Amino acid sequence: MTTNRTFTMIKPDAVANGHIGGILDKITSAGFKIVAMKYTQLSRRDAQEFYAVHRERPFFGELVQFMTRGPIVSAILEKDNAVEDFRALIGATNPAEAAEGTIRKMYATDIAENAVHGSDSDENATIEGAFHFSGREIY
Ligand code: ATP
Ligand code: MG
Questions:
Q1: Pocket of ligand 1 (CB under 6 A)
Q2: Tell me: domain 5-137, CATH 2.60.40.10, correct?
């Protein structure tokens, strides 16, 4: 994966609340091209590995429970400056602090159930994309 790509998940809260369509519309309207996408559910092991960087945090158990409780949509997105522009589009981790018009402001519930994931660096975008997709699934 090249550096004009980022990785996202529409998290179980947003899927359960019927926001897949609204969120994908925000993403494509902002100029991101979908180069891989799937509807899937994380196992406990998947979620623990994906969020391993947070394993010592007090919310880790809650995070794994949340991320495994229902289906998600995972995708790789392409655009110039993808990682930074996508973090701007989703807004702050805590939706109470997210800017007006951002995906988290529009669709997230709280700091834990915050509707979407966005990679925080080019390096992590590559790692996370490869965690979720095989080469044959990426266009
Ligand atoms: P993400 O990595 O999902 O895009 P982020 O980079 O904005 O989110 P991180 O600090 O990486 O935020 O936290 C990962 C996820 O852990 C958050 O998106 C949220 O679901 C959960 N989380 C973060 N902080 C808290 C907290 N204080 N209490 C409960 N859950 C939290
Ligand atoms: Mg993060």
A1: 54, 59, 62-63, 93, 111-112, 114, 117-118, 120
A2: no
